[in-house]
Each structure stands twice: as structure tokens, then as C-alpha cells.
Amino acid sequence: MEEKAINRPSTQPYMTVEEIYNEYCGRRSGLIRALTQDVDILYELCDPQRPGDKKLCLFGYPDCSWNVRPPFGKVPPKIPEPLIGINVIRNEKDRKDWITMVALHSDSWLMAVTFYYAIWSPLDKDQRALLVSLIHSDTNVYEAVIAWNEPAKDNTTEASGSKSRSTVKKLYYGRKITSIDIFLSDK
Questions:
Q1: Does residue 120 lie in a domain region?
Q2: Cβ neighbours for 69, distance < 8 A, ≥ 6 positions apart
Q3: Is residue 5 part of a domain?
Q4: DSSP secondary structure of 95-122
Q5: Residues 120, 61: Cα–Cα separation, whole Å
Q6: Which residues, in sequence order, are bridge partners of residue 66?
Q7: Which residues in the chain belong to E strands, given as ranges?
Q8: Nearest alpha carbon to residue 87 among 49, 59, 60
Q9: Residue 3 resides in a domain
Q10: Is 114 in contact with 131 (CB distance < 8 Å)?
Q11: pTM to 2 decimals?
Q12: Considering its fold, how many domains does the chain have in total?
């Protein structure tokens, strides 16, 4: 019996584990920056009273940038879409709760996009396990946002186990790899 060919979109290139992971890291870094360093800009962009704005989404991009815009107009979209309408519910929640909710949904979207690419790429069982391991070795968006929002303690040192905000920034912004072998040898 013949195996059926996978109906794969012609526009979707095959990607290696390294390429998928690097794209994940870039998108994750952009989202973390939006929800930490650039949170005031994000909050202002998501004002539900802004004229002409529809329901908006927070997008993270592979180049570590982010953007707030309406969802894709094309149906079906090229990649899974993030939470739609983050601006609509902004004033219904406390600012910190709203940021936390957006962070949780951003993590969900990151996983959807990452595994969307993984499904269309010829990854075997071991490669998929490696991808999951790489992703789980990083802090997710939610954890980074929570760490960013923790009050900084005076006179803390790395030896005492506490981390300053600058240390948290270094740990939680995406890291791209040039070779999975190099990455695994650092572990």
C-alpha cells in the first residue's frame, strides 16, 4: 500500500531543528522585550480607546522584534495566530494581570508556531525530542515576565542565589545557536 504524500504548503520551506529553534528564540526574545523593557509602549499601543484600532495581536518575529497589529487578513493564515483582541480586554484587568495574561498566551502561540514548523519539516522522533529539550531548557515568556516584575533586592549577589534584574535580562533574552552540537556541549 502506498503512503499518501503530505499535502505541504509550497511556500513552507523545510527547516532543521537548529533553524526552528533559532526562530523560536528570536520570537521569544521579541515577546519578552515587549512585555518587559517595552511594556509601556505595548500598553499604550493596546489602548482600546485608540481610534481606528481593531482587535489587535502581539507578534514576535525571528529577528527579535515585536509588533502589535490586527491578525492576518488571509484565511487560513500562513502561521498560527496569537491571541486576538489583547487591546479589547486591556482596561478590564489590572495592568500586571493583563501583562501576565498576554505572556501566558504568548507562550502558547510560540509553541503553536514552533510545532507548526516542526510538523512540516522532516524531523524524526529524536530530532523532535531534541527540539522539545532545547525549548524546555529556556525560560518561557511568562517566567521571564514574572522575574522582570519581581522587586529588585538591594545588596544581592549571585553567590547568595539571588539574581538582579540585569542578570535576569542576560538569562532570559533569547540565545541563538550556530550548531546544536556546540549548544549541547555547553550543557
A1: yes
A2: 56, 57, 59
A3: no
A4: HHHHHHHHHHHHHHHHHHHHHHHHHHTT
A5: 19
A6: 60
A7: 57-60, 66-69
A8: 49
A9: no
A10: yes
A11: 0.75
A12: 1
